[in-house]
Amino acid sequence: xxxxxxxxxxxxxxxxxxxxxxxxxxxxxxxxxxxxxxxxxxxxxxxxxxxxxxxxxxxxxxxxxxxxxxxxxxxxxxxxxxxxxxxxxxxxxxxxxxxxxxxxxxxxxxxxxxxxxxxxxxxxxxxxxxxxxxxxxxxxxxxxxxxxxxxxxxxxxxxxxxxxxxxxxxxxxxxxxxxxxxxxxxxxxxxxxxxxxxxxxxxxxxxxxxxxxxxxxxxxxxxxxxxxxxxxxxxxxxxxxxxxxxxxxxxxxxxxxxxxxxxxxxxxxxxxxxxxxxxxxxxxxxxxxxxxxxxxxxxxxxxxxxxxxxxxxxxxxxxxxxxxxxxxxxxxxxxxxxxxxxxxxxxxxxxxxxxxxxxxxxxxxxxxxxxxxxxxxxxxxxxxxxxxxxxxxxxxxxxxxxxxxxxxxxxxxxxxxxxxxxxxxxxxxxxxxxxxxxxxxxxxxxxxxxxxxxxxxxxxxxxxxxxxxxxxxxxxxxxxxxxxxxxxxxxxxxxxxxxxxxxxxxxxxxxxxxxxxxxxxxxxxxxxxxxxxxxxxxxxxxxxxxxxxxxxxxxxxxxxxxxxxxxxxxxxxxxxxxxxxxxxxxxxxxxxxxxxxxxxxxxxxxxxxxxxxxxxxxxxxxxxxxxxxxxxxxxxxxxxxxxxxxxxxxxxxxxxxxxxxxxxxxxxxxxxxxxxxxxxxxxxxxxxxxxxxxxxxxxxxxxxxxxxxxxxxxxxxxxxxxxxxxxxxxxxxxxxxxxxxxxxxxxxxxxxxxxxxxxxxxxxxxxxxxxxxxxxxxxxxxxxxxxxxxxxxxxxxxxxxxxxxxxxxxxxxxxxxxxxxxxxxxxxxxxxxxxxxxxxxxxxxxxxxxxxxx
Length: 854
Known about the structure:
By secondary structure, this protein is an alpha+beta fold. The longest helix is centred in the N-terminal third of the chain and has 48 residues, at about 245-290.
């Protein structure tokens, strides 16, 4: 049996190749994501471990939110002298590091990275832990000298002697006097180095300020005991005291969010490849077993029992899984290498020579590849074991074309009803968490039900889809339609691969279109100013920009917006960390705020705040409730709820809870903060177009900020949603690739299966061109059948997703009919492309040899 299995596997290696490609793709994405994330993690672990001081003292921050306030927490630089006297301290260093700044060249172009990495200005000091070394020029001395990192200098064409302008606490020019090169991985940031007094004065506004104090332990002194001594000296209520290991862990945790995005995206691709590949493998093995009915019957007649036949088929699947997993692992290494080089193009210079391939990667790869293939082949293997010895004497097919579909109908109906009930519950639920959970359950169940019941839908749907074939193409059209109807199970499984991808695209297209329409409605409803001035990546900007905007010719009312992380202790006992917003008093003149109780004056008055009405109901908050509020740096106060807002569930002014208060409150408890947006109205007698021209001229030296009106805002939102849609389209592309492989595989095996039939058709006068057309039409109707099922399912999913979004204020439903029509047309094209090779092969058959085929 083993010899027979190996010979059978090698005999059908061409037919199994397409199935192996599905395994290769799924394993490649799994392996690539694991290798890439492991490599980045290991690289940054080394960076953080090698650059962190033995102990670091920094300002206290109990709030986990990373929202940028523009304020740089500082501590007294004189603390370094105090810490130097602690027993076990060898040396202390004052650190100054600021990220809320912009550096521009002589053409007013930012030299910062465009990949989202920060621009950092810091003080130059050479220690054994410095991540850079001076490679040309000299160290900075005085207020007008600076160093620049080599990667940024090369990327932005900056040379020694060039002058740059730093826009930070104050705006000042610097002349580049040297270039510093990274000795470790460059995380993609742009680094500017100043001497310590200049950094303190120009970046922090005080010659006695620092962002942290680095402490070096004396020889033989461990970090942990030294941390305890320093904490006892300075206290832990005002300062955070951390060892090198703790700093490295914190930095790695911050990096984890970035890595998780890449990992989960790639695992999403892997999941789609696995799901679609299952259908392909099931179909392939089912058809191979159907074609080997006589062979399997002969094995049974020679003494092989059911278990041996089943084991033989599963062994073939195991071999296929091993080959596919091995190739997939190799492809995954190549994919990880490509990602590493892609990151280098964005400024994160990872070294391919330090690629990490840990033991979990190959283990996971083989578990996925072999496991998927083995599971997918199990049902066909059971059918193979059911072949009787008498099948060796007949042309019976194991596939059981005429076998009733009652079991499928029953199981599919039960699962479908459960899925429909879950989606109905999703659409009617009043809580977001409940609705989202029911949505996930409903999506899974309805997908399973559609896959199970797919063959039941083949005959009624394809009779409609191919109804015009006989009239348009005559007997060839009639035969193509009947060929698609001949084996509903096979047609359903082939179409299911395409259906999965298109269901995903249909659902996400509806969701994204609904989000865009909802945001458009929300912008029209709430934004009342002529223009909004904002940073390109929504981080705060310097106060100098606010002053310049106010002084711009034609600028009338200017209302500032400033964000801050806060934590509120609510009457129900819960502590919620969120983001709050501070506004100038005349907010009503630039925004349309809906209040259920109170008004803007009550919301923004001294000692008051406003809150989203829905959030307030959930936590037993009423107008007049006194809420303890924690701000950064340990500052605390109590604010009275003066108003409740109803922004359609969007959270009001800020993020969760819609917390907002007057500008005086945020300035008092977050001193040194920066504005995140300016709402500007034209002065009387100045047209908006003229004001825009004046504002753009004023802000030309500040490339980090843009002038936007309502149309610009809408475009910005649409572009951000489009990023999500591009990911979905990429998933669709992968699903289509595998689905095309499935259609090609099915048609190719079907041509082999119908060799004698094709020979007879050719003998009675069917031309080569007619034969090719027949196979292409069969492929098209199968592909369009999959598209119709997928889009119908996707539309239902999309409507339910919109109902979940409606609970968050996005209440507009939009159906992208253009996209749906394009997908259906595209599916027909996919069917034509998939049929090219099988149709060509069929048309080249020798007629007599085909008739004599066994």
